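Hi there. Long-time user, first ticket. I'm pasting a complex I've been working with (about 623 residues overall). I'd like to know whether the download I got is complete or cut off, because the file seemed smaller than I expected. Thanks.
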Amino acid sequence: MIKTVVASALPVDEVLHIKKHRMEPISMSGENKRLCIVTGIHGDELEGQYVCYEMIKRINAHKENLKGIVDVYPALNPLGLDTITRGIPKFDLDMNRIFPGNENGSMVEYIASKIIDDITGADLCIDIHSSNIYLKEIPQVRISEESAPQLIPLALKLNVDFIWVHSSITVLESTLAHTLNMLKVPTLALEMGVGMRITRDYCEQVVNGIFHLMKDQGIWEGETTEVRAPIISTDGKVHFINAEASGIFVPAIQHWKEIKIGQHMGDIIDPLTGCVIQSIDSPCDGAVFTLREYPVVYEGSLIARILGGDCI
Amino acid sequence: MKKDIIYTLKAPYRDDFQIHGYRFGKGEQAACIIGPMRGNEVQQLYVCSQVICKLAELEEKGAIAHNKEILVIPCVNHYSINIGKRFWPSDNTDINRMFPGYEYGETTQRIAAGLFNRVKDYTYGIQFASFYMQGEFIPHVRMMDTGHQNPSLANLFGLPYVVIRKPEPYDTTTLNYNWQLWNANAFSLYTAATDRIDLESASQAVAGVLRFLTRMGMVKYQGHSGYIASVIQEEELVTVNTQEAGIFRAVKNTNEEVKVGDVLAEILHPYEGYVKMQILSPVDGIVFFAYNEPLVMENTVIFKILAKLHK
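Hi, the file is complete. Here it is re-exported in full:
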């Protein structure tokens, strides 16, 4: 059944609705676990849209296998999704920096507080992101150091390629995932693909992982596929490659392929002079798990992240 | 007056991005004044330009104190101003959410780092800022409650109010917050406008800065002594939200005294024109913040009132 989590009127003849699709087992025991799948906080991230569709389709096709409650929230920022805008139109702050929200705050803070109220009490939550329009990411779960002991065992079931345990920084305390983890709702922040696109293979991989996790948690009884064993790494093993010149980045490597120290990764070129402004070589052996998609770069623009060994 | 380039960045298709600084006097790094970081902060640009104009006059007259240097950076983000975007043009990030910055990081992290490294050691930091909600304030000085703040110094601007804000996680990456962590006395000055020039509150801000610099012994300037400020905690302000959406018609404006039950604003039906809702004041007090857009969504903060205060 489809429910409205929160609604707020817009100035002219329209109401903003944040909706969820609730799926319940045929017979409720009273002790059924509840899983929330949320996505669309950033309006330019679309991979989660296909995941929501596929989850609902597969569950409805075998409703007899559902043993828990699954709430699917495809669009926490419907205006952003509808207008190809990462943030919330007419609002300054990133929606994923205002949780837990405030019932007496601005309209967006009010909405954030109602979303938290609705998810609170769930047994598990998966918050699906898809990078941005600039970078392509392999399916990965990002976990703060403090949540790692509780969340890594769950993330291992999710069929991702990589689990990145990162240091805790204050500004991230206002994300949805951090807020829910503090409220005792174990929440996995999942990243994959690239903004404004759907990478079907990645979505299918993650959907298979969610069913595997649901089975592990007693929410699903149907057949599930085997999951891959992800690499688990900390900040120390991730190397950032940033542009040192402004121009057009042309890659010479492929995403999520092995790379050798000194291997050519790509060039930043100047279309006006016909010159290569910066030739970029890998500083280490490893695998490129993040790669620049959008070619125009400024000094500092992220080109790639490499999961690897010691740098030169 | 000496003109420096604080930071330079090459762009693929535009003139080099440069942040300029204007230095007055020489010696100890006494005060740094910073203008707009966002592309719609036109009032902040105007105020800074007027501060530079005044300091240049004072320097001509020998009115800058010995061994004191004042640095004014009139604009941190002219790239966005020139194309009418609030945030950084290529990736829409906010420079004022990137401090203390990272010199090997993303573009706006590098800009923030380049700026912060140049300004972090000044004793006093003054920023002309804008708020994340749309509306107008009574001119005031704002400080973060980091444990390092000194409200009695903020009083020396002679503006009517000093507001102390308890920082949210997203505030921890602003210039003001990081300046304070670096042991500078940091102040954000808010005037009545952002994307238009309000001459009266701009001149109040310029006078406030000159008053502060005079009282701290950096310049000699004969000006009005201003107000003895009321110091308020931000959470003491009574917030008024709308329960309806539509056309917003303000009845009360900033700095007006209101009584409980007074009509603050009306929300009109956008097609049929009737009054859907009157917004009534929940308290006696003075309007400190007022929403100023013609249309309003439901659950929008439209007023903040200083309760139980009289003019």
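A couple of notes from our side: The longest helix of chain A spans residues 200-216. Residues 23 and 70 of chain A are 5 Å apart (CA to CA).
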